[in-house]
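Reposting from the mailing list since nobody answered there.

I have sequence plus structure tokens for a pair of proteins and want to know whether others read the tokens the same way I do. The first protein:
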Amino acid sequence: MDKKSAKERIEHLKKVINHHRYLYHVLNRQEISDAALDSLKKELFDLENQFPDLITSDSPTQRVGGKPLKEFQKVWHETPMISFNDAFSEEDMKAWIERLENYLGKSLTDADITLTDADRREKIQPKSVFSLRKSALYYCELKIDGLAIELVYENGVLAQGSTRGDGLVGEDVTQNLRTIEAIPLKLLEPKEVEKNLKAFGLKPNTYNLKPHRLVVRGEVFITKKEFAAINKEQIKKGLKPYANPRNIAAGSIRQLDPKITTSRHLDSFQYDIVSQIGQKFHEEEHLVLKAFGFKTNPNNKLVKSIKEVFDFRNYWEKHRERLDYEVDGIVVIVNDNKVFDAGGVIGKAPRAAIAYKFSPREAETIVEDIVVQVGRTGALTPVAVMRPVNVGGVTITHATLHNADEIARLGLKIGDTVIVSRAGDVIPQVTKVLKELRTGKEREFRMPARCPFDGSRVVREGAIYRCSSKTCGARHREFLYHFVSRGAFNIEGLGPKIIDKFLDEGLISDAADIFTLEKGDIAALPRFGEKSALNIVSEVEIRKKIPLNRFIFSLGILHVGEETAQLLARQAIAKIKNEKLKIKDILKTIQKMSAEELQEIPDVGPKVAQSIYDWFREPRNVKLVERLEKAGIMIENQKSKIKNQKLSGKTFVLTGSLESMPREVAKEKIRESGGDVSESVSKETDYVVVGSEPGSKYEKAKKLGIKTISEEEFIKLIK
């Protein structure tokens, strides 16, 4: 076959294969057998092998392609990939609607929007009250336990696929997403899209059928059948089975080698169109996605009332075992996109959508033991060690019992049969003791009088039991976990298991040792290689420069959280005259501050002030700070970030959601103008900035006579 004929044949084969992919994955139909489809793919593969310059990125043969990556590149999302707030009851759902009605009622009139789809043309009733309860349509989607993704198509071809990440920035996992059969490498031709839209009852001339750039979002997941098969293989290899399908899906998408992703047989549904191509309703988006060639969930449904939302949720809670994938609830979205957009975002979630979770799944098991863990601050926490039990697709062996009071409330003994559940399908907890199943062999549990790790005396502070020793090994280990965590030094790849290994092998004795590790020290350890050792050392090196507030927070001072660390940092910086911040100067500055002087810092009371005062006078703590400086830790110069002093001496409290900026940005604006931010309202507060849906801080401010200002007034103040 000559090249011209081969090109024509290849184009025909690609078209036929894509047609059958669409039938199978989108329409759930099959016109030819799997074997016949495989033979078509084989012919295409052979032709492309013969004429490699005819291979295109949208070819079905390119799903398994690409060499293993060294790392994933970062991707900025066009618009934030936000998550949903949760509801767990009908009362929660009604409260959500009431909040949304109140918010929309202030910003929209009946004439601004139509809450129903174009065909029904139903109007809001009554006219005098903005109401979503009777006339609004809601689109209900099954909430799949998977991994959110974003797909970008340029000129109809898949150009980029990424993970949610932190909502603003994700990871480029295009190579791996290309391996998933349910994700089209190329959109259907405009004529096919037009035909499909007509079949779905939509008017093709309403939409842009050939967008230059199309951004869609969806979910990648693994079926229960594939999950079971993978775990069966794990057990056969003598490895520990995976706890839940989502972990495998997420881990598979983040494999640097796409061949591993291919072997996992992932699936995917798309549920959102980010690009504007003419859609007005969310239900419409699902049909348009389907028309373009995307796989959508056939179980999703448009409903006419909140009662139908409840019916939909209750039906799938009862019948979710019929599904071939794990779900933990439903997502409820106001169908009208204009209403959805008008609702805006509160925190990190849209106002006009919510995740309505299923009731906590429960299972019965036996508490075989109760052990005590020692936290970073020396707090002792009892933990139930249970006979392994599968709850909501996750194998559970441990559940926190919080404190001795909770054990007394439950009436729990070692050896008891208990009901364990996962609140919101996430946190394992013991909810009930089945005392009628006791045999008489059960044993009482009492909190220890001595620390189980170093034998020091245990003291009780209210409901909390705490180790009295400041050198407790368990506290030290927990401190190191905190030290490298997000909000502190944020050393990625240096999690608890690796910290444990470094401690057990004697590589580190304190936090400063982390910054003196060499590649060879780590590579010599079992299960570590040159590459992983280099990754850790490189990551540690780039984290040596840190803002002062995060440095203070990393020290694990009792009662000092992120906000207090920020305030203490500001106070210290103001007292240091040197332009370049040095750890030794910071240490001396804070050491010179009396407990009374520390109390002058907003939000710092006598207890917190004494804790800070004592910490910076403890010889072992001073030595640690000095060792950190010697190890190369440098403080970022934050003086330049204070642009002016017009808010100097003023303390602000923020309550409610701000429309013009995230709360963290607002806090930074205050600090840049020399002001302070507090988390609680007191007589020392100068201003309370009131956003939408303010909380109890607003009421307290009115009670104390503290001045409250609107978001608009706040913006004028910081300009």
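The second protein, same order (residues first, tokens after):
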Amino acid sequence: MPYARFISRWFANVPNINLGIMQSFLPERGKSVKTFHFHLGFLPYIESLAPHIKDNLFTLTEQYGVEYMGLDYIFASLVFEDRYLKSKERFKERLDSLGLSLSIFEELREVGRSFVDSCFVKLSPYLEKAGLIGFSCSHYQLSGSLLLCSKIKSARPDIPAVFGGKDCSGTFANDFMRAVEFVDFTGTGECEITVDSLLDHINNKREPVYNVLYRDGKGKIIKSPELPNIPIKELPFPEYDYDEFHISKSDIILPIEFGRGCPWKRCSFCPDESYNILCQVKSPEQISSEIDHYQSISADLCNYFILDSDALKNRESIIKTALNIGEKNLNFIYAEFRAEKMDREVLEALKNMGNWVTHFQIGIETFSEGMLRLMNKGVGALKNVEVLKAAAELRISVQFNLFTCFPGMTRDDLKENIRVMDLISHILLMDNFSIFPGEFYLPPDSPVFLDTGKFGLIKSGESIFSSVFDSFAMPSYSNYPYPYQFLNDDDQYGFSMALRAKVEEIKSMRPADNFMVYTDSPEGLRIEACRDGAATSHLLDSSKKAIYLSAVEKARDIEKLCEDSGLQPGDIYSLLDDFESKGLILYSYDRKSFLSLAMKNHGSNISAA
């Protein structure tokens, strides 16, 4: 069903990969399947609406964010209509704060209702032979799925329904099953083996069910045994009924898995561990074969969305994949990468993989070592800077988030964050970077959520979604965050304002007035630096030059540098401390490694200055 961000090409042009896999996987098991990617038809559906209704729908869903009041709320007001009718004053208050009215919301409710009616008409001919109805739910699309499911169950209450995906995962799944009686099963893991075994059970009740929650004969919620999923390398390529989509093949963005699951799953702000997804990676040969399969269907199928919580599970796989597909002239829309396995070779491979239509995302989050430990990121600030410096020099488009506040964050963390940002401002101001400063939000099932006392938070008793309904049966709902207060709320507000101001300051800098470049010459290594128009120059002799250049592309371990150079640690540190005092290097937090911050001079910065 429609995603909350239905206008974005990421959601309006990308078919659902889980349905695509079902369409190819189940027939291999002797079972028939019909899939409906109704989210692809929502934007074309509303094109015929009156302009003011379209404008209000776009405003509600895009301008104010999916968490605060969006498309999912419209569908939810229809699913839980009794609660909505008792909660109109709460809806009115939230809408008033957005400059919208309840009467506008009522118009939009009719749009949601009529769209779901049209979906029901399209699938009705298939209900006669249906043995199971399945909904894949993520990115705030649970309510639309529930609304359509309720219509199907009203017509055919005998057909069981299963829901799966991040919108109904984790501890919320229990509340979901208790509150929504027309849903028979909720998946607790990956869909392939779950749906396959569920169909076996429907055909023969003596067959067990796996990886689901269900109700027993007395209405008690039961968690079934778990069964490992089919290895990702053994799954068939997803299949789609392209002619049924409302977009041309050249506009379709095909989701493609390089792997599944996060290899870390320990970040304190992330609920990934609750999704119960095994970390796996596809081989380069499998990835290139899958792309060949799509292109054998149509050469127009050349746009790809890398659907993976960390596509860089195996750096060698990325490098080989780039060699395999780099000549195919493919367009890549998005990908996420953790920083710890990234280096210059990986970045060059990504650059050569195809055309990056949008920036890919690297999980940076902060430049404060203390905050990275609070977040349990598994990576240090020095590595974050190393990766961004390489991306800047290679002119690779990157976006990253920057937490402006975080549970347990201190004034010292803020100072360290700003100190490093000042030191590397010549890197961060590059126009191939997009920095998104943002507040911390509290998703269910994250380590912070599960132990707010440890992290210095006071959380609300219900999510921001649930709070708009009076006496709502589910305190959590979908992926919606919970309102909270920091124990040091005033300090955190100040931290947030200071970091936002620093990002804006860096964005406003002129590269001609802010740079740090090095040039090799017979006299030695010359480093030209400029900060806000104030220029300095440093000339390093041969011994200093060797040390500086040893860490100019990759952070250097100082103990190993001593071994390789034959110099004593005291002599090395004396030189490095001098470099640090001039702002030319960045130490790791334990001072066991360092990175040289000057970038290779190609003439552009110096001439501009």
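Reply #1 (J.P.):
I read it the same way you do. Confidence is low (pLDDT under 50) at residues 604-609.
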